[in-house]
Design goal:
mainly alpha, 79% helix, single chain
Length: 597
């Protein structure tokens, strides 16, 4: 405070003189290692009004800050570069506007990034810098991919035409890769392949290893997109650490759009594993960030993944809310990939709810009946068509669709398949009374799902297998399959934070089990004996009777405070109580406290 007071008392010319003296002294002292003092040199030369030196050092300080992902510092330095250039009466190079735009884009500030990229384009045209002009088209196209794929297409096409007019093969190849990736995201994989293959040929002629590597990576993405409808050798346990590391890095460097995407991917992984509470938390955070940034693509992704999660929880009404939002945003975003993907999931939700007419109308409106099954979105929509055919009692049509999906899938082998598709095929074969083939498909699906750790799908496969064994009077195998399903169901239910959703899931999933199996379960019998409370809720009730607070209960059970609150609310609702004291008295009277000691 003393220093600031003294500084404020200096006249402007005295301040400038002092800054100039400090700057020139530092420059002499650190002539051999000025890189370590770039920020201080830039600051003092700028405040001294020594504009040539200020321009030199602020640009280098900005570039260094950007390399270190100190993005706000980079923005401040690049802004000072532009101010110094103005004082010198020189035109700033396009690279300065571009660098500041990249920093804004990484921070998720769309409007400032767009303004800088547009100013970079104007500066490039003024300077007649054709390469910088091409780069501006590419930057603007990539930026618009957050919000509007129509704009993305326009800028990438201009980059392609500009590169061809310049006669620059490296830029032409990179433009082709951008255009190809756009085609892939609007469900035009053959066009994408053509573009990437043309780019690869150019890079090979140029003997450009970096260009070749980049193009081969894009070609791999065009040929095979990994999801529940495509074979994948990676287990969820192997994938999760990478996703968590990506999230950590995005947060450390302040890349908000990257954080939203990593949270979305984390939600997908956790949801497949049945970690529903953590998955919902990750997807909720992803959606909040995406909405804050107005990043339509990650808004769609978060809504879609949340809807798919509630489909897993057999809650089609909640799923429909999120999936309808995702479909609306997909149309605004002009992404055929997301339109097809969300249409497939939305149709599945309608089928689960028994709204077959609406499901058919949706598929007929949003997805062409003669569309290929080449991309993830197309395959999701075709899978929904197969589910609809089966629900309508047309297993022959459903079988044709599933066989077409299997035949067109990449990376299929005896060891690698598509669990969801194998399960659906097994159900279709059961409907066609082809039991042996159905068992083979379902056992394969069970093995793959177990290997991947996808509990959310595994219990359904076990239920279907158990039902098949029952029809063949293979009671011991049926009992084993149903017991496995029941154990997984209870384990999954324990990870559902919302009490109402948890009860709905238990009710709907256990309704799929044989009545004798459900009533003979010791766990279910205990639940019925204690007012319908689940095992976890009984633990919470016992701890309340011991005088524990919600925070203490959360610590003892190693769960979140919010989860305990949910359990307490469920207990009060089920027992028709209005206070914790009533829970405590009930737990003692019924002997619950002794039982847990």
């Amino acid at each position: 405070m003393t220093r600031e007071a003294v500084y404020a008392g200096l006249l402007a010319r005295e301040r400038k003189k002092q800054h100039g003296t400090i700057a020139e002294t530092m420059e002499r002292l650190y002539a051999s290692a000025y890189d370590a003092h770039l920020a201080e040199l830039a600051y003092h030369f700028y405040e001294a009004g020594l504009w040539e030196k200020a321009l030199f050092y602020t640009q280098r300080a900005g570039e260094k800050a950007q390399r270190l992902y100190s993005l706000w510092a980079a923005i401040e330095h690049f802004t000072r570069v532009l101010d110094a250039a103005h004082h010198l009466g020189v035109l700033p190079p396009p690279a300065i506007y571009r660098a500041r735009g990249q920093a804004y884009e990484t921070l998720g500030d769309f409007e400032h990034a767009r303004s800088d990229y547009e100013q970079a384009l104007d500066a490039a045209r003024t300077a007649q810098d054709a390469i910088a002009e091409w780069q501006s088209f590419v930057d603007l196209g990539a930026l618009w991919a957050e919000r509007d794929y129509t704009q993305t297409s326009a800028f990438f096409q201009r980059a392609y035409e500009h590169a061809r007019a310049m006669g620059q093969p490296p830029l032409l190849a990179r433009s082709l890769n951008r255009v190809g990736n756009w085609h892939l995201n609007v469900e035009e994989p053959l066009e994408a392949l053509r573009c990437h293959q043309e780019a690869l040929a150019i890079f090979q002629q140029l003997n450009d290893p970096h260009g070749i590597a980049e193009t081969l990576d894009l070609l791999r993405g065009a040929l095979s997109i990994s999801n529940t409808m495509v074979a994948d050798a990676t287990t969820l346990a192997e994938l999760l650490p990478d996703v968590e590391m990506a999230l950590k890095i995005a947060r450390e460097i302040g890349q908000r759009s990257g954080e939203a995407y990593a949270l979305y991917q984390l939600g997908l992984c956790l949801s497949a594993q049945g970690e529903y509470g953590r998955a919902l938390d990750a997807l909720g955070q992803s959606l909040l960030i995406a909405e804050e940034l107005e990043h339509r693509q990650w808004m769609i992704a978060a809504h879609w993944a949340t809807g798919a999660l509630y489909l897993d929880l057999l809650s089609p009404l909640i799923a429909l809310h999120h999936l309808k939002q995702a479909l609306r945003l997909s149309h605004e975003f002009s992404s055929r990939h997301w339109i097809n993907t969300t249409t497939g999931s939305l149709a599945s939700a309608l089928i689960l709810q028994g709204e077959l007419v609406q499901a058919e109308a949706l598929l007929n409106t949003e997805f062409s009946g003669d569309a290929p099954a080449q991309t993830m979105g197309q395959r999701m929509a075709w899978c929904a068509r197969a589910e609809l055919a089966l629900a309508r009692g047309d297993p022959e049509l459903a079988l044709q669709i599933t066989e077409r999906l299997s035949a067109s899938a990449a990376n299929i082998s005896e060891q690698r398949g598509i669990p969801r598709l194998s399960k659906l095929r097994g159900e279709v074969l059961i409907a066609l009374s082809r039991a042996a083939e159905a068992e083979t498909a379902l056992r394969s699906a069970r093995e793959m799902t177990t290997t991947q750790g996808a509990s959310s799908l595994l219990w359904r496969i076990c239920v279907t297998l158990g039902t098949l064994y029952q029809t063949q009077s293979r009671e011991a195998e049926a009992e084993q399959a149903f017991s496995t399903a029941h154990a997984i169901i209870e384990e999954l239910a324990a990870n559902i934070p919302d009490g109402e959703v948890q009860e709905h899931f238990l009710r709907e999933s256990e309704a799929l089990l044989p009545r004798t199996r459900a009533t003979s379960s010791p766990r279910r019998a205990a639940k019925q004996a204690f007012g319908g409370l689940t095992e976890r809720e009984r633990e919470v009730a016992a701890l309340i009777a011991k005088g524990k607070s919600n925070r203490e209960i959360a610590d003892q059970l190693v769960v979140s405070y919010r989860t305990v609150e949910t359990h307490v609310g469920a207990i009060l609702s089920k027992l028709a109580f209005s206070s914790r004291a009533q829970i405590a008295v009930w737990a003692v009277e019924i002997g619950l406290v002794k039982q847990t000691q």
